[in-house]
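stuck on this one:
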Amino acid sequence: MAFIKAAALAQAESDNAENDMQRGGIKATRDKAICKLLKKKLKIKDWKGTISTLDANSDGKGVLGIQIFKNVIITTWNNDLSDSEDNTLLDPNSDFFKAVSKLSVGKFVTFSGSFRPGSDGECIKESSFTLSGKLREPEFIFQFSDLSF
């Protein structure tokens, strides 16, 4: 999958970078590759991965993360403040929440939904606070619409 290839290449190049300026260039190249791949269509269908996070925030809303490659996670936000614009947290009253809550970390699943739009050259949001985190352990923000196993 081209998305995984772009993320994995950035991970490898980041490990060999000598400074953050080089890492900034690596991130820009990765982001450009992802934007080209998604072609402004942020919706994806039937991607596969393993549940890495199955949690709830302090209000009981569901937090879901799916690992699609080593240290590459597709995830909801984990708090209401960050999620205020994206609406990714799972509603505990929804059938989707109820179905997902019966699963467990490590479960292999197929999922669909939409990446959340980014800014500043990022066509999709990534939640890491540091440049190193954005490259080595990216967490791409996602609104799940379907999950099967």
